Predict the structure.
Amino acid sequence: MLRSLKDLENYTLYASDGEVGTVVNFLLDDEYWTIRYLIAEANGFSGARDVLISPISFREADWATRCFRLGLTREMVRNSPGIDTDQPVSRQHELEYFRYYGYPYYWGGSGIWGLGTYPALLSTGRWSDDRLAGDELPEVRAADRHLRSAREVRGYHVQGLDDSIGHIDDFIVDDETWEVRYLVIDTSNWWFGKKVLVEPRWATRVSWEEGKIHFDLSRQAIKDSPAWNAAEAVNRQYEVQLYDYYGRPVYWQGGDPHVEPAPPQRANRNRA
């Protein structure tokens, strides 16, 4: 199911032996547009600190009571590698994190979570130092940093073909793969009260230094896009309308989001 990332903030995290903390932020992989970690404000510790929680450790999500249940103990979380969430997270720190929890790391495979699409698959794996042997070790440790604070990316300006479109207000994520399926764009600086969805993989360029993301979309194309009700969950019917309007192949059939789009179908603009 697709969910608002903002709505997942303040979810309670439960270890196998009790409450462990509260979700306060997320780390976004800017290469794959995937949430790699939740940042939790840990409680019940002497000198409380922020800790990273990977979706790999999830055992159950209780959407009704707004909590995530983890396959970890409070002691494991308490002793996890320290992290300064105000600083970039290095690949070396991730290696230390995955080694500590005994999970196989997610990078280096053909899928967004290593050899697969779902983080839960990695929970059945096992850390092996053999994977870091020989020539692979320098390459892994020298990898670029791709993790960014979701709070930081919110507010990034969105630039269209002819003018500014708005700014990023939220992210719509798949609650199984943790991929960011859509950016929620607030256009209220020129179109009062209107928020629209666009696929982040449709971006033509992202300038992380300037805090700006570029799309080959005009203001008029955005204005004529299928209406989106933020009070309702994004469903497949709406997604079909959205992809049809922008002339893009749908992701659930393995389409390439980077293909040259067809012109927006303005005849669809009034469809709910």
User: Anything to note?
Assistant: The CA atoms of residues 9 and 228 lie 22 Å apart. Residues 154-268 form a domain with the SH3 type barrels. fold (CATH 2.30.30.240). The helical segments are 5-8, 74-78, 91-101, 136-141, 150-153, 219-223, 236-246.
